[in-house]
Design a protein that fits this description.
Layout lengths: L9 H11 L4 H29 L4 H14 L3
Helix pairs in contact: 1-2
Amino acid sequence: MSLTHIEIDDEALEQAKKLGGHRTKTAAVAAALREYNDRLSRATAYDRYFQLAQGWDLEGAEAAHQADKEQRPQ
């Protein structure tokens, strides 16, 4: 973990703490970063599959799905 000094809007941070049920500013910021990273990861995955799917037919899509499942760690 790193100690970082940044300026954050106090009202936005307090609202994030309240809405997220966080007790500390650090917890609210950490949760926001996780959410942001998750969203970007999903968007990247959607883009990847969209590009891959351009030439697929049903059989190609099923084969790609099966290959993806086989690559995932158990």
